[in-house]
Task: structure prediction
Amino acid sequence: MEGVAPPFAAVLFDLDGVLRNTEPYHRMAYAQLARSLSGGAPPDAGEIAGKSNLQLYEALVARFGGPATAEELSQRHFRLVCQLLEEYRVGPMPGLEEALSALRRRGIPFGVVSSSWRWYVEHCLRELGMYEDAAVIVTGSDGLPLKPAPAPY
Result:
């Protein structure tokens, strides 16, 4: 509604699944890395929901062991996701550009909150053309509790 002051001072967005449909590519990366650790067994889909990426790899390392730490696997995961997003030319979610334009017209700042690594979040925001305009970026690299803790959000 034009001309009506909104009841908020800013808008915070999550990245994955909100600004960009990255979920299928995260599942692909997780499945690939999980199979490499487990000797080919596919991961249980129920393991993924509501957990941080680092928690997923901590669970896999605890179950299967391996030559890499959970953090190394998580970093590898996000590099693989970046490759997949580029390969599949994944753009912004439908309606995002219009929503950002409406926020800009009204002078409402936005920020991004994600439990993902800062380098990954910044990379995605640059690809979406949002990095320079984000008033704040809070990531899993900032030392706040990860999913499912609500503190960063």
